[in-house]
Amino acid sequence: MNDVIKGWGAPLLRSLLLIPIAGLLLLPVVLPVVNSLMTKREISANYGMLGKTDTSSFVNLKWIPDWVSFQQYKEVLISSPQFLHLFWNSVYMVVPIIVGQTIVATLAAFAFGKLRFRGREALFFIYLMTMLMPFQVTLVPNYLMADRLGLLNHPSSIILPGVFGAFGVFLLRQFMLHIHSSFIEAAKMDGAGIMRILVSIALPMVKPGIAALVVLLFVDYWNMVEQPLIFLQDAAMQPLSVFLSRIQEDLLGVSFAVSVVYMMPMVLLFLSAERYFIEGIQLSGVKG
Amino acid sequence: MKNEATSNVFSSRFSRFIRSEAMGAFWLLAPSLVGFSIFYLIPFGQSILGSFEDRLGGGLTLSNYQELLLSSSFQKAASNTFLFTAISVPILVAISLLLALFLNQRVFLRNWLRTAYVLPLVVPVASIVLVWQILFDWNGAINAVIQHFGLDRRDWMKSEWAGFVIILVYIWKNIGYNIILFLAGLQNIPGQYYEIADLEGAGPVRKLFGITFIYLTPTTFLVVLMSVLNSFKVFRETYLVAGAYPHDRIYMMQHYMNNMFLSLDIQKVSAAAVLMALCIMALVFILFRTERMFRSFME
């Protein structure tokens, strides 16, 4: 009996500590989902006083809707095409960045990780430093070039710097470094060219790396705020992430459904590719 | 005759060079290098030059830097950003280390818990902002609780408390990232070390300080670096909740730079970007140096 308590006691205590924290962390995921299933009337009854100073009533946090309704979703997905338009804006910028950066970075990462050439370390160091710079720094050069090329107020002012971002090169190089050099040497002995080695040896081995890159890039760019704020003046071009923050009180009734619609692709991708996501973070942590 | 021989030697050398690794590397790097140069390197060089440019035309000058450093809004933004990083990073690192230590032991629902801790990383800012308003509004849920206990409610986002609120959001957002890194670091510590310590009769506290913390140090350096870099991203949430001119307490570098962008003061923005880049490079350099010193000390 004592042994049983000894065996289970400590893990149970730890779990009892960790589970409430997890609940707290999940609040911003659960709350919009619950609220998105309320009727507009219930939303305004619970949250109508937000942002008003002339009332003494408080918001009413409820975890179960009085009446489960898909009214909000119907309005967002069917009645008001503007939301779908903004959703499409996000897709239109994020997909080219992911596809482009993955291709460009795979080629470069193979060169950095598996080929010998002069100046390799110095050049990679420049990529690394650029990757570490916060937006506040890289936005300035991005802006100057977009201005010169006449790309301002056009999605390509965001897509092009995204395609050539340094993160993909860094992450995939980490995966390339894990390929044992003997595979490559053997292929060279057999007379395979560099392209051949890349396509038939390196590429299959870094598949998890590419999956990790896709997930991490998606999370990063689906959430972008800084770039569209500075590069896109036209509100109709903004991605949903920026628009949602400007939601007015009269839209509060559907804002939860909109944010759930926006959150879903990310959460689903994360849950289905959690292994790659975590592997990617772990390797993006190992220093180059 | 002799001429032909040299040209033969030359051509075979040349073809070998073409097929050599360096040439292959060059072609593979070309797309990335061209784009990277156009969108990052060249314009960054330009903005370094621009930061020294005299706005009235001609000549190099330090006046942009002087003006920048003397401007009160820059001082406010820089000191707020610095203060925020200096306070929030140690808190975040400590909490995530603690949670990682717990998660690394036997725990029920371990995989579920880990997923729950990491999930905030993928929640879009928009949802965060909604929940933030519900919690911290003047009529929000937190004030409701406070008043329930007989205390005065406060205007969270429009008072000194705003700094506290963004620290909370920062921790909430980044805890999962750090836990992943710490867990990976913990799993890299060979189990034999603990077995030997057990044989020598070391207690749990001794093992924690003598083995875990020592071997976790390289990971900790990395976590600190990533936490500092991620602390610059909290601007997103702050901006979306509080707009371009928030309470003085949370007016960050990014607010300053955004506003300079909008007033098209490119020289000043460039000078601020150069200063920031220098700070980051200095930080990276110091962190790597101390880590190397620590490593050589360990060996």
TrEMBL record, chain B:
**ABC transmembrane type-1 domain mapped to chain residues:** 78-287
Its organism's taxonomic lineage begins at: Bacteria, Bacillati, Bacillota, Bacilli, Bacillales
Membrane topology (UniProt)? Multi-pass membrane protein
Q: Which UniProt keywords apply?
A: Cell membrane, Membrane, Transmembrane, Transmembrane helix, Transport
Q: What is this protein called?
A: Sugar ABC transporter permease
Record's keyword annotation contains Nucleotide-binding: no
The family annotation for this protein states: Belongs to the binding-protein-dependent transport system permease family.
Enumerate the subcellular locations listed in this protein's record, separating them with semicolons.
Cell membrane
Give the CDD domains listed for this entry.
TM_PBP2
- Pfam families the UniProt entry points to: BPD_transp_1
Which PANTHER family does the UniProt record give?
ABC TRANSPORTER PERMEASE PROTEIN (PTHR30193), INNER MEMBRANE ABC TRANSPORTER PERMEASE PROTEIN YCJO (PTHR30193:SF37)
Position of the signal peptide: none
> Does Transmembrane helix show up as a keyword for this record?
yes
Transmembrane parts of this sequence: 21-42, 82-103, 115-135, 161-186, 207-229, 269-288
